[in-house]
Write a structure and sequence with these properties.
The structure is a homodimer of 184-residue chains. Chain A has helices at residues 18-31, 41-47, 56-74, 89-101, 115-121, 126-131, 162-175, and strands at 6-11, 36-40, 79-83, 105-111, 153-155. By secondary structure, chain A is of the alpha/beta class.
Chain lengths: 184, 184
Amino acid sequence: MSSQGFVIWFTGLSGSGKSTLAEALAPVLRERGRNVEILDGDIVRTNLSKGLGFSKEDRDTNIRRIGFVASLLARNGVGVITAAISPYQEIRDENRAMTEGDGAVFVEVHAAATVEQCEARDVKGLYAKARAGEIKGFTGIDDPYEEPPSPEVRCETGLDSEERSLDQILDYLESRGLIGKAQS
Amino acid sequence: MSSQGFVIWFTGLSGSGKSTLAEALAPVLRERGRNVEILDGDIVRTNLSKGLGFSKEDRDTNIRRIGFVASLLARNGVGVITAAISPYQEIRDENRAMTEGDGAVFVEVHAAATVEQCEARDVKGLYAKARAGEIKGFTGIDDPYEEPPSPEVRCETGLDSEERSLDQILDYLESRGLIGKAQS
C-alpha cells in the first residue's frame, strides 16, 4: 500500500450527504492504516475563516484556505477529507492543481443529490428558510452550484444508499493503490 | 528515533532571527529523517489570514490559526516550525495546550535579541519607520512583546552565532528523542 497523501474533495449541495459520507469514510480509512483528517465546512469556518461571509469572494477565500491546509497535510502523507459545498469549479481546480503540485492525489467526489432531492429531505430546515427569503445567497436556490464535469467519483446520494456510495469511493481509492484491500 | 510530531514555536521581536533560524533548522531536521513544514508569518498571512490587520484581536486570530494548522500537522507526525512574532503569552499557551492535547510536543524557542539589538541591525528598515511613526503598533516600539517566562529553549540571538543557537535547539530535540543524533 502506498503512503502517498491524498485529498478526497467532496462537493455538493447543502444536505447532499457530504459530511455523512466523510464521517463514515474516515474510520474505514483509519482501519486500513491511513492517518486521516476531516476538514469540514464548520471546523474551518471556526478555526480559519471566522469573519468571512457568504459573498462569492468570501466563499472563494474559505475554499482556498481549506485547499491550502488540505495540501499541507496531504503532502505529508495524510489522507484528508474535505466536506464543504465548494460550489465553483475554478476554485476546486485551483485546489486540485495545488495538491497535485505537492505530489499528492486529488480525488473529487460529487455528492450529486439534486436540489429537489435535498430540499425534499431538508434535514436542517435551511431550504425552507432560503425559499422564505430568510437566508440569502443559498447555494442551489439563489446562488449557483457548478457541477463538476469529470469528478473521479460521482455518488448518486439522492438515490443510492450510503453504503453504495462508500463502496464506490473505496473502490476508487483501492484502484489507485491509496488504501489496501479490505481484510475478508 | 520517535516519529512523534512536534511544533517548534519561535517567538521574538521583528529581526530577532526567527525566520533565519527556522530556514537553517528545516534542512537539518529533514536530513535526520523528519518531515518538516515551516509556517512563517508571511506564508500564513497570504494563505490563511488575508484581510487581518495588526490590532490585538487580529494578531491573536492570526496566531491562533497558525497554532491550529501546526497542531493538525504535528498530530500527524510532522515536525512543524513556526516563525511569527507571536507577542502574547496567553495565545502561545493556548497553542501549546492544543498541540499537547493532540499528543504532540510543543517546543517554545525564544529568539531573545533585545529591541536595542534588533533596532541596531534593522535589516528591513522597519524600526526606523516605526520610530518615525510611519508604522503604528510595531511590536517592541509601540506595541507590547511579552517575553516567555519559561521557554524550552532561549537563544541569545542578539549575541550568539546562528550556529550556536541551532546547536541549542538540536540538543534539546535530541534530548527529547525527537530527532536522532547527527552522523559523525
